[in-house]
Amino acid sequence: MGVTVRAHRLGAVYGSQQRLFDVSFEVQPHEVVGVLGTNGAGKTTLFHRLLGALPGPGTAWVAGYRGSNRAPSPHRVGAVLDSLTAHPGLRARYLLASWCQSLGLPQRRVDELLETVGLSTLEGRRVGQLSLGMRQRLALAMALAPQPRLLVLDEPTNGLDPLGIRWINSVIIDFAAHGGAVLLSSHHLSQLDHLAQRVLLIDAGRLVTDEPMHDFKLSAGPLTHRVACSRASDLQEQLVRRGAHVLRTSTDELLVTGCQVNELAHLAHDYGGIIRLLAPEGASLETSFHRHLDHHRRSAA
């Protein structure tokens, strides 16, 4: 089916200032792409630019539509960019039904969507009576309504409890499994670690890196190993002498970075006493995120 998103040297202008610079990337069908960055880095600006809500240089081919400063068809792209804004007196079901009608969808789609997002018991409740989490679910129902090819989700777990986060993860996985593509930002990095196959890291409006998740975590720095032994102090002393970075996590456990596994094994055998554990410590997305960002900012300084 080809690429779902192809962005070429995208920039975005907000007021009189340019907030996004020369961002290029692609998103394939079946792919969930995590968009990382600190507050104000340009993640939401990128989403608004892709959807034609902000002007700027560059071009974006989005779900079969090629344009520069116009919005792609709502039949092809569903988006949750902000907490749902609607008149608090409107009935939630009416809001969803009106949206479906504007898209030319049959009214039975309303019941299907409410069931999908877990709001089938809404009855006559008004928007103003909904919790933040319920408004997020309703916004997602509106995004999913036309069965789009692309979902753009900016912090979709805001206001959701742990069960709600698990639920939205399952919705995203199912959407991608059926051929959809997802652009997803979230401050819950564990969510992105679980869902995303690729990472776009944005800082100060520029694309820092575009990598598969596995490569992003590995390229952030040397692998860390966890060692548990009866003579942790002696082993730590020897490792520090050889230039390794050692973090003592308990009386008998060390986290070791900057030492090849073969050398570490020999040192543990010679100085560590009884070895209970020697294993690689999986690189976390959070650690990798901070390392990439620090390296980029030092290089740019």
UniProtKB/TrEMBL annotation:
The record's similarity note reads:
Belongs to the ABC transporter superfamily.
The cross-references to Pfam families, in alphabetical order and at most eight, read: ABC_tran
The record's section on InterPro entries has:
AAA+_ATPase, ABC_transporter-like_ATP-bd, ABC_transporter-like_CS, P-loop_NTPase
Transmembrane regions:
none
Q: What is this protein called?
A: ABC transporter ATP-binding protein
What PROSITE patterns does the record tag this protein with?
Answer: ABC_TRANSPORTER_1 (PS00211), ABC_TRANSPORTER_2 (PS50893)
Record keyword Nucleotide-binding present: yes
Q: Which domain of life is it from?
A: Bacteria
The record's keywords, sorted A to Z, are: ATP-binding, Nucleotide-binding, Transport
> Which residues does the UniProt record annotate as the domain ABC transporter?
5-229
What's a single GO MF annotation on this record? ATP binding
**Nucleotide-binding: is it a keyword of this entry?**
yes
